[in-house]
Amino acid sequence: MSIKIDNVSYTYMKKTPYERTALNEVSLTIEKGEYVAVIGHTGSGKSTLMQHFNGLLNPDSGSVRVDGIDINAKGEQAKSARGRVGMVFQYPEHQIFAETVYEDIAFGPRNKGFSEEEAEKQVRAAMKFVGLDYESYAKRSPFQLSGGQMRRVAIAGVVAMAPDYLILDEPSAGLDPSSRDSIFQEISRVYKKREIAVILVTHSMEEAAQYADRLLVLAKGKIAVDGKTHEVFKSQRDMLKSVGVDVPQTVKLADVLREQGLAIEADVIKPSELVRQIIKAKGWR
Amino acid sequence: MLTDITLGQYYPGKSVIHRLDPRTKILGALVYIVAVFLAAEPVSYIAATSFLFLVIAFSGLPFLLVFKSIKPLWVIILLTMSIHLFTGQGEVIWTWQFLSVTREGLALGIKMSLRLVLLLMISSVLTFTTSPIVLTDGIEALLKPFKRFGVPAHELAMMMTIALRFIPTLLEETDRIMKAQTARGADFASGNLLKRAQNLLPILVPLFISAFRRADELATAMEARCYRGGEGRTRMHELSYRWQDGAAGAAVASLMAVIAFLKWGAAV
Q: Looking at the DSSP assignment, which residues form a beta bridge with residue A225?
C-alpha cells in the first residue's frame, strides 16, 4: 500500500518563452502510515509534485502508481485509485461553494458514490475530527464563518472522503497560532486513528520537526534530501542551507546551549526533547 | 490546463515591431484592417498578405504561433467560406446533387475567409508584440483628443488595464479551483447540458467570491495610494515617436495607397 513515483518529469508552458521545468526525474515511494513533511524553497517544485500524487497533473515522462495502479490511465480502476488520495490545497477555504456547511462537506463523499446515509456519517465524523459541532454548524452558511472555521470546513470536506493518503499544502498559512495548533492536532488524530499516510507541504521547519517522521527536501525540481526527520536536521545542515531552507528554532537553541557548555545531544529537534535534555544535563529531578 | 491559452498574450521580444510606439501599432493595425476590407483585386490580397508576412518576419514571432490565433474562429471562417462557395451566382464549375459551386462564389469565398484570417493575424501580432500595459497607454493617448466630447479616456484605459491585468490571475484562480474540486471528485465533462451547468456551480461560486474580494482589495489599495482619476496625472514612461515609427507609418500608408489605387484609381 503505497504511492510510488517513478522518474517523473514535468515542464510548464512547453514550447513558449515561459517554459519552466518544475520536476526533473523524481522518484520516491511513500508507504501508508508514514507522516512525511515536504520542504523546499519557493519554486522548488513542491506543489507540482503534490499535484502528481492524485493525477491533477499528468507527468511528461515517468509514472505514478497508487497501490500499484497507474493513476494516469483511463478507466474506473484509475479513478478509484485517484479517489484514495485526498488533497487539501493552499487556502482551501477559497474552494467552498455550497449554501450550508453540511452540503459543502458532503460534496466529496457524494461524488465518490457514497449513499446519503454513508455521506451523512462521513460528514459527522469529519466535522468531529476538525472540531466543529455538528448540531450548531451543519446548517449554517459557510460564508458567515471566520477564516479559521472556513478552513476547518474545507479540510473536513477532504477528510470526509476517507482518503488513504492525505496531502496538505501549507494547511496553516495565514492562520493564528491557536487555530494552527488545533488543526495540526486534528490532522494527527485522523492520521493515528485511520493509519493513513500524511504528506505535509510546509515552509515551517518547526511544523516539520514536530509532526513528521520523514523529511523530503526539494530543490530545483529534484529531491535534495530524503530521510528521517531527526537524521536530516542532525547531519544535513549544510545541505539544507545550500538549498535555502533552515533548521528548526529548537536545533538553533540547542546549539547555543551546547556552546554555553550544556551537554545536549545532537539529534534534538522537538521542544519537548530539548526540555528533557536540559533537565538531564542540569541534573534536575 | 487553462493557463496554456495564448489568446491576446504578450510574447516578449526586442524586435523592431516590439519597440514601436503603441500608437503607431494600433493605428497601423487599424489602417491595415481597413485596407484589407477595401481590397478587391487578387493583387491587393497578395500585397496585404505579403505585408503581414513581412511584419511577422520583422517581429521575430514564430509564424505558427501567430497562425494559431485563428483557432478560436476557424468554424466561422469555414462557414463563411462554404456559404459563399455554394450561394455564388455565375459560371458553374462543379455540381453535386443540389449543390453547385461557381467561379465567382469560389473567388468570393476565398477573399472573405482570407480577410478574416488576415484580420485575426494582424490583431494578434499587435497583442503579441505589445504588452497589455503599453497597449492601454497607447489607447489612452489616442483617445485623449476625444476628451472634450466627454469620452472618459483615462477611466476607460484604467478599466482596460485592470481587466487585462486580472485575466491571467482569474484564469489561474479558475485552474486552481477546478483542480481542488476535481480532487474532491467533481466531474465537469459528463452528463446532459443541465447537469453540466449545475456541475459548474462549484467553480463559479468560489470564482465570483474571489473576484469580488480582489476588486475590493484593489480599490482599497488604490485609495490608500491616493488614486483619484486621471486629472493632472503624470506618467513614468512618456510615449514618444522615433524614426522607426515614421518608417512603419510610411509602410502602412503605401500599402493603403496601393490597395486604394487598385480599387478606384484603375477605373478612372
A: A217
Inter-chain CB proximity B176 and A92 less than 8 Å: no
- Residues A43, A48, A52, CA angle at the centre, nearest 5°? 165
- Contact residues, chain B, for A17 at CB < 8 Å: 11-12
SS3 sequence of A253-273: HHHHHHHCCCCCCCCCCCHHH
Give the C-alpha separation, A51 to A56, whole Å. Answer: 5
A161 in contact with B at a CB cutoff of 8 Å? yes
Percent of residues in chain A assigned helix, strand, coil, to nearest 5? 45, 20, 35
Say what the ipTM of the complex is. Answer: 0.85
Q: Which residues have a Cβ under 8 Å from the Cβ of A111 and sit 6 or more positions away?
A: B184, B185, B186, B187
Residuewise pLDDT in 10s, chain A (285 residues): 899 999 999 998 887 777 888 899 999 999 999 999 999 888 888 989 999 998 899 999 999 999 999 988 888 888 888 889 999 999 999 999 999 999 999 999 998 889 999 999 999 999 988 888 999 999 999 999 988 899 999 999 999 999 999 999 998 888 888 888 888 888 888 888 888 999 999 988 999 999 999 999 999 999 999 999 989 988 888 888 888 888 899 989 998 999 998 888 888 889 999 999 999 888 887
Task: Using CA coordinates, name the residue in chain B closest to A55.
Answer: B183
Cell numbers describing residue A196: 493513513
